[in-house]
Structures are given as structure tokens and as C-alpha cells.
């Protein structure tokens, strides 16, 4: 991919595109997070320079128990290391350790329309299910745009639910450039999303019309990264399907069966439509999907069990130093472009 340089990053064919993405420390990582985003984060380390962030400030946009975020941040870092984020090749850090995120978020809010934020479906969904709706939940996509733009990001690997937020990020970056840059010298790099062909939207096994989610409170429908072999087998065995008995990929009319095919395809690198032809009954499809997920998660669980807190904290501290060095350069350029008094 051609890098969209405007700025502090030296151009040149040899330079690799930069990938940035984030995850909230809000509970155990599930199969949707893994197949939709994290598997890509790990694979993309071969072709991109990765910057991966635990977005603790985002998690505070809904009320949390005191002390919950600090512990969950360490757990999320362990999950990311276990799925294969390599601190030698990528930067892994915590959002609140790099102050420039909130500074850029304000400047981004100044070029983001109230109407644009109001159209975000994630805000609509989450504001309906929370008693207290913070203004941070509303401006969440502006902070997310700042997270991405702060690192001259070329590509953002995310699940399909984040498509709208990355598109907003592109829109506000273009607006920012029109206001503060010029054609020869845009201020911000305009990123693209990278959404996987299969697994972009993994659905809840008990309620296949809703996406698998940390906040859905559906233990039987959510496959967690640390589930045991028995738990995974049971969850797939009990997955909701339908009564017509035909194995066919059709998310509209057969959401449960299509979700199983999606999971199997994503875990094995196949195509859901083609895999459907291998099955005449739901039972073997469920068993194969469970086995494929187990194959994927076994090495992750083993690596995770070998990590200790001190080791993880040291990795995050080093990651924050490296992230800060990139962010400081971009913020200098942004402050000059906005023409703030030095
Ligand atoms: N069901 C899913 N299918 C595919 N991808 C998914 N992602 C989340 N759920 C699915 C992707 O995982 C990445 C990190 O997610 P996150 O925790 O930062 O965001 P989220 O959308 O808030 O995840 P959850 O599990 O749905 O958490 P809650 O319930 O707290 O909102 C993102 O790239 C996301 O696309």
C-alpha cells in the first residue's frame, strides 16, 4: 500500500505501512475480537509496522468498578502478547500513558460535527443500554480518530462494527487537512480500514442476530479466549441454529448456521459458502467449528499461562516510550499547523 505521507515520516519504497488498532480493557477477549481483529494484528506484523494500544480511556466512557480498569489493562496486555503481538516487532502500550491522545482528541472534536457523532450506530446502541450516558460515550469516536491519526497510521485492522468509526476518522482527517494544511502538505495521514473477509462480524452463539460482545452478558453464547476445551465444545454443541435442517450460508435467513460457517471459515482460512457444501447436518458442522477454534486457541492459552505481571508491565513501559516518541513528532506538526503559540 502506498504510504500517504504528509509529514514527519520519511518517504520511500522500502518503508512499511504503519498499522494501528486498539482494544478496550473491558473483560476477557472473545472469539469475535480474535477472529475479527486480533488475528489480523498478529499476521500483519510481517508486512506492517504495528502500533497496538489498550484503550483504557475509552473503557471509562461507561461506568466501571473502582480498580477494575488497572487489572483489566494487565489482563488485556497478556491476551495480546499471547495472541502473538511481538514487542520486538510492534509497539504495545496503554492509551493513558501517552498524553497526546487526549490533546489531539480535543483538536479533532473541533472539526467533528455534532450530527456526524449522532449518526454513529455504536453510540445509539450503547446509549440505549446504559442508564447513565456520558458525554464521553458520545465523543468516543473523536478520541478513537485521534488515537489513529496520532501515529500517521496507514491501515487500521478492525472488525466490521468499527467500519463506521474508521470512515469518520477519514472524513475528519480530510477536513482537518483542508482547514489546516494544503494540497502539497496535508497535516494528517488519511488511513484505511482492514476488515477480514470472513470473521468480520462473529455473532453470539445463543443469539446469532447480535454480535458476540463483552457487554452482552451471554456466557453461553460467548466463546472466551481462556475457555476450557469442555466449555468450548459445550457452547458449540448448544449453539442456536434453526429447524429447516439445511446447511447453507445465508446470514439473513439462517444467522445461526451462517455464523458457524463463518467461524469455521475464519479459523481454517476457508470460504463459508464453499464449506457449507461439506455438510448435510448441523451436528458435524458444530463439532468441526469447535475443533477448529480449539486448534486456534490452544497455543494462545499456553503462551498466556507463561506470562507474569512484571514482565508485562516492562513491555508496556517500553511500548509507551516508543509510542510517545512517534506521537510527540506528530503533535508538533499538528500544533504548528493549527497555529498555536509556541
Ligand atoms: N463480534 C465481533 N466480531 C468481529 N469483530 C469484533 N470486534 C469486537 N466484537 C467483534 C472487534 O474487536 C476489536 C476490539 O474490540 P473492542 O473491545 O475494543 O471493541 P468492542 O466493539 O467494544 O468489543 P466488544 O466485545 O463488543 O465490547 P463491548 O461489548 O464492551 O462493546 C475491534 O476491532 C472490534 O471491531
What is the strand and helix layout of this fold?
Blueprint: E1 18-23, H1 31-43, E2 49-54, H2 56-59, H3 68-82, E3 91-94, H4 100-109, H5 114-118, H6 121-129, H7 135-149, E4 155-157, H8 163-180, E5 192-194, H9 229-237, H10 255-268, H11 272-276, H12 282-305, H13 309-338
Parallel strand pairs: 1-2, 2-3, 4-5
The chain binds adenosine-5'-tetraphosphate.
The site of adenosine-5'-tetraphosphate has 19 residues, from α1.
Would you write up a description of this structure?
The chain has helices at residues 31-43, 56-59, 68-82, 100-109, 114-118, 121-129, 135-149, 163-180, 229-237, 255-268, 272-276, 282-305, 309-338, and strands at 18-23, 49-54, 91-94, 155-157, 192-194. The chain contains 13 helices and 5 strands. A 3-stranded parallel beta sheet has the order 1-2-3. Strands 4-5 form a two-stranded parallel ribbon. By secondary structure, it is mainly alpha-helical. Helix 8 (163-180) links the parallel strand 4 (155-157) and strand 5 (192-194). The structure holds adenosine-5'-tetraphosphate. Adenosine-5'-tetraphosphate binds next to helix 1. The site of adenosine-5'-tetraphosphate has 19 residues, from helix 1.
Brief rundown of the structure:
The protein is mainly α and 342 residues long.
Q: Ranges with pLDDT <50 over ≥5 residues?
A: 1-8
Q: Mind telling me the C-alpha Rg?
A: 21 Å
Side-by-side strand order of the widest sheet? 1-2-3
- Total count of strands: 5
Structural classification: mainly alpha
Bound molecules: adenosine-5'-tetraphosphate
Shape: globular
**Percentage of residues in DSSP E strands:** 5-15%
Q: Into which percent range does the helicity of residues fall?
A: 40-55%
Mean pLDDT comes to: 94
- Biggest β-sheet description: 3 strands, parallel
First and last CA, distance:
35 Å
User: H/E element string?
Assistant: EHEHHEHHHHEHEHHHHH
Number of helices: 13
